[in-house]
Amino acid sequence: MISYAQNGEDVVLARLFTGDDGFWIDVGAGHPVHDSVTQHFSERGWRGLNVEPLAEWHELLVEQRPDDINERVALSDRAGTAVLHVGPPENRGGSTLEDDVAARYRREGQVLTSEEVPVERLDALLAEHGIARADFLKVDVEGHERAVLSAVDWDAVDIRVVVVEATEPNSPTPDHDSWEPILLEAGYACALFDGLNRFYARADDDEALAALSVPANVFDGAEPHRWVSTVAAAEGERRVLLRARLEAEAELDGILLHLRNLADEAAALGAVAEGTSDAAPAPPAPSAGAAPPTTVPPRRAEHTAPVEGEPLPVPPIEMRTLVGPTDVEAFDNPDGALLLGDDVPVEAYRFVLDWGSGCGRNARKLLQQTPRPGRYLGLDLHLGMVEWCQRRLEPFDEHFRFEHHDVHNPGFNPGADKPPHLPFPVADGDVTLFLALSVFTHVLPSSVDHYLDEMARVLADDGIAWTTWFLFDRVGFPMLQEDQHALFVNEHDPTNAVIYERSWFLDALERRGLALATARAPEVRGFQWQMGIVHDHDPRAGATLPDDDAPTGVVRAGHVPDAHRVGRASSGG
Fold first, then answer.
1. Buried b (16+ CB within 10 A) or exposed e, 394-414
2. Which residue, 171, 258, 399, 495, shows the most beta carbons closer than 10 Å to its own?
3. Distance of CA 367 to CAs 61, 301, 379, 399, 431, Å?
């Protein structure tokens, strides 16, 4: 539970009121969110009467609580008008009708303003709106409690719980003697004093008296809204800064690499000019738009073998944060087990193409695997991660390579001039294990056909593609037109999650001569399916796509603003 109230009042009330349908009366409602006793219940579907004389807070209540009854009046024991002493911005909650309270604030150095506001009696206000019952009444009126409570016909309204601020304004000194007899005479008993408020329930309501008897505490499992929102905002900013840092590091690495290449070319030209070398200048770079090579490029000469006994480096936390799990264990394979366990035989690891290699989660496990793959090629669109893997992981095995798959992605590889998709730099039928973990879940319909074609092209006759997908059933979305087969969750970056229609997925495989060898439903309904895909002539072909009967649940929770939630939600790397 997220607690919005100043002193955990909503936590105490939520112990008793567990349903999603209720009604409150909030006298001195204040801000609709900050220090609000009712916001938690509003989020659960409750509604109520909010009484707030301050214009700025009343306007916010009208805007954010349109289903509530929002009255801009002050309550007292008479109708008419009165002078409201309005506290400064840092003490708006201290605004009061009491002259002596305002005088004390001024002596303490606070600057108050005064304005005339309409005043009503609570019984008249309830009668005006036809309110005869409420689950709870909260009163916070900075010293004016007796006047409010004395203007209630307690026989005409059924209120189960009454919560009243019970100390002198902005003070821990109890101040309930003047008004508590009104509630006691009406048949209420005090269940709790939490240091700020007194909670009352009917004297014969044993359930309420027991539920309200202790203050909010660790066993309630609540977190303060101010803390949660501060952490969420900080996390959002942290992700933005991490992305900016990685992009800057990648740009710097690119500049340094370009300078090294220029220096090498200059040295070669100088040697030729002096007649000391038969070397010729390097051939020009391929023109823009040229097709990538059809075989894995040669190993970079600048790599040297790692120091004997040097441990495999772990990707920096900044990169791990961007691709999903951050625990080092998620990148580790200390037992040397096969990456996909019993699902894929050891023979399939002759040539592994890891599309969406990220910062090397699969690669690092494969480098620890016994035996290692005969060949490995990691492709990813995030240049910084690719270059980290080139520098830090490639030296451990001459058969491991990482290449930048330079296609457009608004979060990880922006650039209007970048193509939406590219061929894989691999020869036909060369790949025995094609990995695409958390990749097709982020590929747009404009590119998915291309990449399914590429997967079918590079997959060996006895090869298997191990992939993950988000799938939905068309019968649940009758608004879709016949040619529409994908859903999205993020308006800022549709690649954040792409969900494909089940029958389209199966037809797409069949059109390419592919078939399911394994179809593993998600552990949480609607989340990632694991699919083993082979050529349709493979003896393993023939698996069917079962229904998604997994229990419902939440896999990813957070408060990161959508504007920051760009790029892949997770990555195979």
1. bbbbeebbbbbbebbbebbbe
2. 495
3. 59, 20, 16, 10, 18
Say how far apart CA 430 and CA 143 lie, in whole Å.
Answer: 81
Q: For residue 517, what is the enclosing H or E element?
A: strand 514-520
The contacts found for 499-502 with CB under 8 angstroms, 24 or more apart, are: 499/441, 499/470, 499/471, 499/472, 500/440, 500/448, 500/469, 500/470, 500/471, 500/472, 501/471, 501/472, 501/473, 501/474, 502/471, 502/472, 502/473, 502/474, 502/545
Closest to 385 (Cα-Cα) out of 364, 365, 370, 399: 364
161 DSSP β-pair partners? 136, 201
Spatial distance between the Cα atoms of 480 and 498, rounded to a whole number of angstroms: 15
Contact 483, 498 (CB under 8 A): no
List the one residue out of 60, 29, 58 whose CA is nearest residue 140.
29
CA atoms within 13 A on the CB side of 395: 16
Residue 498 near residue 490, CB atoms below 8 Å? no
Helix (H) or strand (E) holding 264: helix 225-273
By three-state DSSP, how is residue 384 classified?
Answer: helix
Pairing of strands 431-436, 23-27: unpaired
Q: For the chain, which residues score pLDDT lower than 50?
A: 277-299, 301, 304, 558-572
Which tokens hold the place of 474? 């068309």
Pairing of strands 431-436, 74-75: unpaired
Residue 38's SS3 state is coil
Instruction: Output the pLDDT for position 372.
Output: 96
Query: According to the model, what pLDDT value does residue 231 have?
Result: 86
- The tokens describing 349, both together, are 């690891």
- DSSP-derived secondary structure letter, 296: P
Evaluate whether 205 touches 187 at the Cβ level (below 8 Å): no
Residues 6+ apart with CB under 8 A from 206: none
How far is residue 532's CA from residue 465's CA, in Å, rounded to a whole number?
A: 6
Q: Give the tens place of pLDDT for each residue, 553-571.
A: 887 654 433 333 334 444 4
CA distance 419 to 409: 9
Q: Which residues pair with 535 in a beta bridge?
A: 514
Q: What is the pLDDT of residues 246-266, one digit of tens each?
A: 667 656 755 765 676 677 677
Q: Provide the residue count of the chain.
A: 573
DSSP string, 429-498: T-EEEEEETTSGGG--HHHHHHHHHHHHHHEEEEEEEEEEEEEE-GGG-TT--TT--EEES-SS-GGG-E
Neighbours of 559 (CB within 10 A): 12
Pairing of strands 74-75, 113-120: parallel
Q: Give the β-pairing of 459-472 and 498-501.
A: parallel
Greatest alpha-carbon pair distance for the chain in Å reads: 111
For residue 125, give the nearest of 28, 24, 49, 46 by alpha carbon: 49
